[in-house]
Amino acid sequence: MKLDTRGMDCPKPVIETKKALDNENLSQLEIIVDNEAAKINVSRFLNKKGFKDISLDEKNPKEIIIKVKISEKNEETKTVLQGQKKIFIGNDKLGSGDDKLGKLLMKGFIYSLTELDSPPKTLLFMNSGVKLCIEDSESIIDLKKLISAGTEILVCGTCLKFFEIMDKLKVGKVSNMYDISEKIMEKDSVFSLT
Amino acid sequence: MTKKELDKICLTKFTKASGWGAKIGQDVLSKSLCGISQPPNKNVLSDFSHSEDCSVYQLTKEICIAQTVDFFTPIVDDPYDFGQIAAANSLSDIYAMGAKPITALNIVGFPVNKIDISYLKEIHKGGTDKLTEAGVSLSGGHSIDDVELKFGYSITGTIHPEKIILNNTGKIDDVLILTKPLGSGIINTALKAGMVSQKTIEITTNSMKTLNKYAMDIALKYNITSATDVTGFGLGGHLAEMLSGEEKGAIINFSEIPLFPETKELVEYGLVPGGTYNNKGFSGRYIENYSYVQPEIIDIIFDPQTSGGLLLTVNKNEAEALLSELRENNINAKIIGKLIKGKQNIILEK
Question: Model-level pTM?
Answer without folding.
Answer: 0.73
